[in-house]
Structure to design on (439 residues):
């Protein structure tokens, strides 16, 4: 029997790309042929895992970015604006390239609206996927970008969360309308509507406006590359499926300071080990980092390992306490297994890795879905959420409380077991068969 073919379309952004590649590996292990469509920047990682890579232009995923600049609008005739805006999506050759692979089903990152619309026009089953908690709106799950902790305070009460959703949805609608007026009806949403018209896609029957995604989401099967156990209590939806923890395994190593990593992982039993990783989000001029180092100075029994990422160069001029080591890169999955606490920004990639390691978290969310991660960590009592402007005393208290809490440690172990229990090859095989059998 000919192997079924699966196409996966990725934005190339690292965290969702990692989840998509792990998903692709699981599909391949079930006997499917997998092709991955992603920008050229993702080629080396895709090639590392032996998948066919079809390069696509960098997708436009920010729904409020201008597709054509004011200068371009001035240089073009008015009747040419929409053609230019559609061209900016970079999907002119996408349909042909996708059809050449003859896929039986297509999985597309939920933020790639233009690619979803084009794929829907090809009479191929389309599934949107995400590594964010795209929980349906409800009174126990606030919008991902809002700081609110269910069950805590007025803001976290059911009426408070409902009000947050109302305000958010009104803001989103007004934002869409304002962009339409300011950009001469070649804004992101209007251009998607025209793209759908040109591809004979009945968009208005396919979209959901009441959602967190910008500017909308689609009435399509939706796959979250995340564990259900870690989510907040939300209304169930027949087309929404959780795959379980989708953590990319066997990642290629980057050059790193093996000695410092080993020293951290093999620290004395009396030392508590704290891993600090903010990716590229946290800037070195943030007041949080000096406050963290002040805590380290006050507590020489704590050993800190800070993965500085792209901020590595700026750390050379920073005077650090003796119990703080800085590395440009760390094998995060390995380090988290040895850490007593992880201090991070709350991206879902790091969040799920910390849960899989059974490591308590102290999150300092910065943008977008990181606030949603913090809400889930606080709700399940597997960590705490701070603010980037917290004083030394508050940070110190949060760290000490988490390190000494047997309840938090036990909750982490329980959540680890629940999430690992969701990983089932049989469930995935059945899910794929059911999707492909639909009309």
């Amino acid at each position: 029997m000919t192997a079924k073919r699966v196409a996966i379309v990725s934005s190339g952004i690292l965290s969702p790309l990692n989840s998509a590649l792990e998903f692709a590996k699981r599909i391949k292990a079930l006997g499917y042929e997998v092709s991955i469509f992603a920008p050229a920047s993702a080629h080396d990682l895709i090639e590392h895992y032996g998948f066919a890579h079809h390069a696509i232009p960098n997708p436009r995923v920010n729904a409020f970015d201008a597709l054509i600049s004011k200068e371009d609008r001035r240089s073009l005739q008015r009747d040419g604006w929409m053609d230019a805006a559609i061209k900016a999506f970079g999907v002119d050759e996408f349909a042909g390239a996708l059809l050449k692979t003859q896929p039986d089903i297509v999985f597309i990152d939920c933020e790639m609206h233009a690619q979803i619309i084009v794929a829907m026009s090809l009479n191929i089953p389309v599934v949107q996927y995400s590594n964010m908690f795209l929980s349906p709106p409800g009174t126990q799950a606030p919008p991902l970008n809002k700081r609110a902790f269910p069950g805590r305070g007025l803001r976290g009460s059911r009426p408070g969360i409902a009000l947050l959703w109302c305000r958010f949805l009104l803001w989103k609608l007004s934002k869409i309308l304002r962009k339409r007026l300011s950009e001469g009806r070649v804004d992101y949403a209007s251009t998607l509507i025209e793209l759908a018209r040109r591809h004979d896609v009945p968009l208005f029957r396919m979209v959901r406006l009441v959602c967190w995604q910008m500017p909308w989401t689609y009435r399509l099967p939706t796959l979250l590359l995340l564990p259900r156990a870690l989510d907040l209590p939300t209304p169930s939806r027949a087309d929404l499926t959780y795959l379980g923890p989708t953590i990319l395994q066997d990642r290629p190593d980057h050059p790193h300071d093996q000695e410092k990593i080993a020293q951290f992982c093999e620290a004395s039993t009396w030392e508590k080990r704290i891993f600090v990783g903010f990716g590229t989000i946290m800037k070195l001029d943030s007041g949080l980092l000096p406050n963290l180092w002040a805590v380290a100075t006050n507590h020489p029994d704590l050993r800190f390992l800070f993965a500085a990422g792209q901020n590595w160069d700026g750390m050379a001029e920073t005077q650090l306490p003796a119990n703080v080591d800085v590395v440009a890169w760390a094998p995060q999955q390995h380090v988290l297994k040895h850490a007593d606490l992880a201090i991070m920004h709350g991206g879902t990639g790091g969040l799920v890795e910390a849960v899989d390691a059974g490591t308590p978290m102290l999150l300092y969310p910065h943008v977008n879905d990181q606030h949603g991660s913090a809400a889930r960590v606080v709700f399940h009592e597997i960590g705490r959420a701070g603010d980037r402007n917290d004083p030394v005393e508050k940070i110190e208290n949060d760290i000490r409380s988490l390190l000494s809490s047997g309840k938090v440690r036990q909750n982490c172990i329980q959540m680890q077991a629940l999430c690992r229990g969701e990983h089932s090859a049989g469930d995935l095989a059945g899910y794929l068969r059911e999707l492909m059998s639909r009309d």
Residues 5-69+88-244+423-436 form a domain with the Rossmann fold fold (CATH 3.40.50.2000).
